[in-house]
Amino acid sequence: MSELFSRRTALAGGIGLASGMGLLASETLARAAGYQEDQNVHAPGGPVARSLAASVGKGAEYSLPPLPYAFDALEPSIDAETMRLHHDKHHAAYVKGANEALAKLADTREGKLDPSALSELTEKLTFNLSGHLLHSVFWAIMGTGGREPVGELAADIQQQFGSHAKFKAQFSAVATQVQGNGWGVLAYEPISERLIVLQARNHQLNVAWNAIPLLVIDVWEHAYYLKYKNVRPDYVKAFWSVVNWGAVNQWYGLIKRTHQDPAHEEHGH
Ligand code: MN
After folding, report:
1. pLDDT at 30
2. What is the pLDDT of residues 16-69, one digit of tens each?
3. Distance separating alpha carbons of residues 36 and 50, to the nearest angstrom
4. The pLDDT of residue 219
5. CA-CA distance, 83 to 88, in Å (whole number)?
6. 191 or 34: which carries more pLDDT confidence?
7. CATH number at residue 240
8. pLDDT at 265
9. 26 CA → ligand 1 middle, Å
10. Rounded average pLDDT over 129-154
């Protein structure tokens, strides 16, 4: 695990972790997260930055970040068996799928595969990479901690949504209303410096360019069916009791400052 958490590993790739989704370069993530062996939980960026930095490994291949708590830590809201399958099987499959897509795209460029598969491979990359990143954020914004928004994020939610209750009602409804598989997402839109709630289908559809996920809920059936069966609203309600608002606020602070402070853009254009 210390290998996964090492700054050196996180930096090995030196590529943007998710430039397509407007997240941060892995180097920026690692630096801003104070990403060191001591795993300082109070470092800027917090658990989300650490999880994303651990989402890319040696040779810039994507890798499965460790769950930052025990499988049963979210009981009774989310059961241990669901967490184990979800992290070890489902999330791992997205990591594998993203790496496979990249390898096949490279093979196609080298003439080893038929270019007629490029569309399919590109979609495979988009789907699996988006799934990988959303799950990496999802694990890190849950756990123990406050049960209401805190800090700068709390103030901005209050100002932009009218109240925490109005935000929660909108987010819960959006998540509950996803048709089929998808996500509810609170995102930061850096052009207007605004918080927006999005509804992703699958992992990658119906999303806004440049919006950065802050708080996400997975509403694929694999996220809740063992315990909640078809009753998604009960799962969404239970989700609120395991949100680590401190982690969300730390991540928000890093994202906001990075997009507002030119000093963070030394690796930009
Ligand atoms: Mn999932």
Report:
1. 56
2. 344 335 566 655 665 555 444 334 445 689 999 999 999 999 889 999 999 999
3. 10
4. 98
5. 8
6. 191
7. 3.55.40.20
8. 52
9. 23
10. 93
| Dihedral sign computed on CA atoms, order 211, 24, 215, 85 | positive
Token output for 189: 């839109």
* Both structure tokens of 102: 């990249």
For tokens 């790496």, the residue is: 99
Task: Report how far apart, in Å, the C-alpha atoms of 110 and of each of 95, 105, 115 are.
Answer: 23, 9, 10
- Structural domain tally of the chain? 1
C-alpha pair distances (Å), 268 with each of 24, 29, 33, 171? 11, 14, 19, 33
Q: Nearest 5°: CA angle at 232, between 228 and 234? A: 70
Q: Is residue 68 domain-resident?
A: no
Q: What is the pLDDT of residues 159-188, one digit of tens each?
A: 999 999 999 999 999 999 999 999 999 999
| 9 in any annotated domain | no
Report how far ligand 1's centroid is from the alpha carbon of 266 (Å): 35
Residue 67 falls inside a structural domain: no
Alpha-carbon separation of residue 38 from 34, 41, 50, 102, 160 (angstroms): 9, 9, 12, 32, 36
Report d(CA 181, CA 131) in Å as an integer. Answer: 11
In a domain, 246, yes or no: yes
Instruction: Tell me the pLDDT band of 144, cut-offs 50, 70 and 90.
Output: confident
For residue 80, how far is the Cα from the chain centroid? 20
Q: Give the Å distance between the CA of 113 and the centre of ligand 1.
A: 30
User: What does the alpha-carbon distance between residue 157 and residue 149 come to, in Å, rounded to a whole number?
Assistant: 8
- Rounded to whole angstroms, the Cα distance separating 66 from 140 reads 10
* Ligand 1 centre distance from Cα of residue 139 (Å): 10
The string of pLDDT tens digits covering residues 86-119 is 999 999 999 999 999 999 999 999 999 999 999 9
Distance of CA 182 from the midpoint of ligand 1 (Å):
9
Range of the structural domain that residue 233 is part of: 151-265
CA of 223 to the centre of ligand 1 (A): 6
